[in-house]
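To: structure desk
From: M.T.
Subject: fold request, one chain
Message: Could you run this one when you get a chance? Sequence is below, nothing fancy, just the single chain.
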Amino acid sequence: MSLADPLPGRDLAAFVTAVETGTVQGAADALQLTQSAATKRLQALERRVGRALLERGAHGLRPTASGCVLYPLAREALAVLERAEAALSSPDHAPLLLIHASRTIGVTLLPEWLASFRAAAPPCRVSATITNSEEVVHAVRDGAAEIGFIEGPAAMHGLRELVVAHDEIRVVVPSTHPWARRRAVALEALTGEPFLAREAGSGTRAVATAMLADAGVELHPALEVSSAEALKRAVLGGGFTLLSERVVASEIAAGTLAAIPVSGVDLRRSLRAVRRARPAPRGPARAFWRWLGRTLAPPAGQTDS
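Reply: Done. C-alpha cells follow.
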C-alpha cells in the first residue's frame, strides 16, 4: 500500500457502515446501494488487505481482530475525506470566473445576468472588471479575462463572439435644452453644439462617431471623460453627449436628462460576448458561455461549447 494507491474510500465506507449497522443490508441501505454492491465492496477490501475483516456472530456482523485495528483508522480517514470535500465546496475555494465588461454592459446588464447564471450553475466565484471595449478585447486576448463583453467594433481574429443584447445610442442633453422637446435631432445640428465624449477606446463613442461619420458628420470632442456617470454630470452644464438609452434610464425617469434619436441615422447596435477561440473555455467559463448561448443569444447565434 502506498500514497499512490491508497485503500479506496468507498470500500472503507462500506466496511465502517457494516460494522456500525451489524449487517450487509444495513450498510447497503445507509449507502444507498444494493446488498450485492455492498458485498462486492467488502470483498474487494478484504482481498486488498489480504485478510478477513468481518465475521458473522450471534448478533450479526462483527469485526475480526484485523477489522478492529482497521475500524478506527477507517473512520478517521473517512472523516478527513469529508472535511476535504467540504473545504473545496466552500465559497473561498469555488472555481474562479474572470470577466471583463464594457461599462454600459457591466453596469446595466451584467449584474442581472450573473445573478441568473449563478442561481442555475455550480458554485463559483466571479471577478468582474468594468472597463472600455478596447481594454476588454485586450484582456481576453491576453488571458486576463476568460469572457468579455463589448459594445464597439473589434477585430475578431482568434476570437469567438455571441450577440447577447441590442440597444440604441441617442443624443443626451439636459431636460432644459431646446432639443429635449424634439422628436429627433437633425444631423447638421450636431456640429453646432459642444460634443462631450467618453474616452478613446469606448465602444459607445466608437460606434456612434463611426456611424455619424458615415452619414457625413465628423464630431470632435470638447471634453473627454472616462465614465458614463461623469459624462452625465458634465452634460448638465451644456452641450450634448452620445450614450446608450439604457445608461440614462434613471435620469430620464427623474426628469434631469433627455435622450433623443438622430434623424436619418440608425444608431442601434449589437452588444456581444467574446472569448478566445482556442483554447476552449473550461469550468465556470465554459458553463457561463453555454448559458449565454442558451439564454441570451438569438436562435441564429453561435452555441458552441
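Reply (cont.): DSSP finds eleven helices and eleven strands in the chain. Let me know if you need anything else for the meeting.
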